[in-house]
Structure formats: C-alpha cells, structure tokens
From TrEMBL:
This is Formylmethanofuran dehydrogenase. Gene3D superfamilies: 3.30.1330.130. The lineage of its organism: Bacteria, Bacillati, Actinomycetota, Coriobacteriia, Eggerthellales. Residues 13-105 form the Formylmethanofuran dehydrogenase subunit E domain. It comes from the Bacteria.
C-alpha cells in the first residue's frame, strides 16, 4: 500500500482530494505491484514507464506524480474512451497491465467513497488484465512546416494536403461523406 505522504503529494499537485484522484492513486498502487516496480526508483525519469489513460479525469494527476508519466515526456498517452481504465507498460520488458475500475460508489457520500477507495486493496477495486494493444512506440521528433493557411509551425504528422498545400488540422476542411 502506498504511504500517506504520497497521497498528500498527489493532493497538493492536484489542488484538492477527491474520489477521482483516489482512483488514480490506487491504479498507480496496482501498477507498481503488478509490474514489480521499485517505488524507490519512481517517479520515472524518462519514458521507462508508460501509461495509456482511457480518461482525462482527476486520477491522471496521480499517475503524473507517482509514476512520472507526463505528456511532456510522451509517456502519458491519452486513448480517450470514457472509461476509468489505465494501461501501464515498462519499456524494454514484457511487463504490462491494464486496470479497469469496477468499484461502484453505491450511495456513499464523497468523503466516504474516497476513504473506501483509499483503504480497499486495488485488486478489489479494479479488474486486472493485459492490455488488448501493445506498448506504444517511443516519442519521435518530427520536422515542422508552416501551415499554408494560418502560417503556424506544425509538426509533419499534424499536416494534411488540401488544394495542393500543406495545412494544419485546425485549418483543414475534412472531406466527409456518409452512407457508404
């Protein structure tokens, strides 16, 4: 079980305590246990631990603080599905786990539910399984070009060809046809 001082660190980063933050906290506890991570060597310094989050809720802040997975290091990857689910990978190994929240609030008040989450073993809160997809590739560096419409510098993966010119996704007028 993660120590109370870590909960305080997570809450300080997030700005308050809440059940959502507790869910992320317990997901990290599960990831550490299931992946055999050494808490003394956390948070991750680089991309060695990767989290694919299926939500953009409060719990993601716990992942950033405890495991060192961040958007800036490209080891916190959104795969938004609206599910309270987190997949964790350790680069250079075959260690991986997906944790899907199964615990329901069942009429508890906010504080009571948060306490329930924090004091219940992660195995009773989450379905523990293997992710259905593999480890995402490491971050790549892409050359950038100016968008022909707005002029803003845009990485190549975010450009589309429109009327023979490269434009960013904000300026791109997608061609969509339904019914086929």
């Amino acid at each position: 079980m993660l120590d109370e001082s870590l909960w305080r660190d997570v809450a300080e980063f997030h700005g308050h305590t809440c059940p959502g933050l507790a869910i992320g906290f317990k997901a990290c506890e599960g990831a550490i246990a299931e992946l055999g991570l050494d808490a003394a060597h956390l948070p991750a310094v680089d991309e060695e631990v990767v989290c694919v989050t299926e939500n953009d809720a409060c719990g993601v802040d716990a992942v950033q603080v405890l495991l060192g997975c961040t958007y800036g290091k490209s080891n916190l990857i959104p795969r938004l599905r609206g599910k309270m689910a987190f997949s964790f990978f350790v680069r250079g190994t075959d260690r991986q786990v997906r944790l899907v929240l199964e615990a329901k609030n069942e009429g508890r008040g906010r504080d009571e539910y948060q306490n329930y989450l924090l004091t219940t073993p992660y195995e009773q809160l989450f379905k523990v399984e293997k992710p259905s997809y593999g480890l995402p590739e490491p971050a790549r560096l892409f050359p950038s070009q100016a968008c022909a419409a707005c002029g803003e510098s845009t990485a190549e993966f975010g450009l589309r060809v429109q009327d023979g010119k490269l434009v960013c996704l904000d300026c791109y007028d997608a061609y969509e046809r339904e019914g086929f």
